[in-house]
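HUMAN: Please help interpret these tokens:
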Amino acid sequence: MATSKSMHLRVFSLNCWGIRYVSKHCVERFKMIGDLLSREDYDIVLLQEVWSEKDVLYLKKTLSYTHPYSHHFKSGVIGSGLAVFSKYRIHDAFLYRFSVNGYPYKVQHGDWFGGKAVGMVQMKIGGLMAHIYVTHLHAEYCREKDAYLPHRVVQAWELQHFIRHTSRGADLVILGGDFNMHPQDLGCRLLRTSTGLRDCYTETDKFDGCENGHTLIANNPFINEKELRPFEKGIRIDYILFKGSKRVEMKCESLSTTQGSYPGRAFPLSDHEALSAHLLLVPSDPASQQGEPESGKENTGKLAELVDLVTEARTEVKVGVHCAQQKRYSAARTGGMGLALLLLELAIAAVPWLATAAAQHPFPRASFYLLGALCFCLLLCAVVLWLFHSTELKALQSADDHMRLAAASLQEELRGAKTPPPQHAHGENPTNQDACSKED
């Protein structure tokens, strides 16, 4: 049974930038993070980019008293980087890995190796069933020419779909993480509108932090100011979203962010600023609270917005489908060229008269073998790329099919919402008319 008293819930979210031997001051920063979390009274901690198992074990040991329950989500080659620490017992956990997530040959970006995903844990908070989500979407490396936009849109689509279907029956929902999207980007709008989740920054009564809630700021020593252009002051890409239910109302009383360097240190916790939300939970009696039905105009407006968002998302995904088709064609063409060269070399080595002609015009044997090895490597790489882009293409086409079905369903629902109920002459009720005819 849910408690009848209101409760306060403090939620912390941070992208830790924990790439060992690459991220600056990685070991020192995790000690700072562990020290902060052990001192502050956070109920739920949502972390991203905790790549190293050593850092996970260190945090578990450091927070064993203040946050005895934790779960580290493993995915991809180096892990999802997602971790949850909690004061409340975690009853269940599940990880959903996004179907598209960048390219393995773009090693300098590395998103593919992380296996980006969304992790969910279930816990009881004061008798209420809470579903807590933590996620990290694909990074945006160039806003003007964003090659990963279709992938990030599909990830946002899968994220909202996963949350809507797994949060049924939950009394409260909290989502935190690094979305790598601006608040008005397509993926963010789609996520908020389809799930009904509310943004702590826009809903809070009190905010204390960076200007406009930025979580990547220019005066962070780990940030290259060129990466923020044309947003020189900073950008907001880290979020804490929440939603209540008929059993509990949720309100964000305050939200704060860190601001640059950690007190007493020459550098901050991470290249991202941390978020700290103070949420108020007010349970209510579902029997007495029926809730006001959504007005026809509000329902129609929401449906129309969802139709537009899904249509816009399909447009971006179709761009991704076209790019994947082009890349697969390029891989096939390159593989064909490698195969032709390899067959030519085999023919020279196997056909007697070609071998005789080659003997009359001597060609270094080492170069001959090297060229054959290069042709074989070219063919092998082309086959691997063709298989990868074929998988990417099918994932994008599958997402487009799902969006097409959703758009058709929403449009049908929208037409039904816009169709006025049948009107009867002089405002008479059909049942009254039948009754009158019987009396006659």
Summary: The CA atoms of residues 14 and 22 lie 18 Å apart. The radius of gyration is 28 Å. The chain has a mean pLDDT of 88.
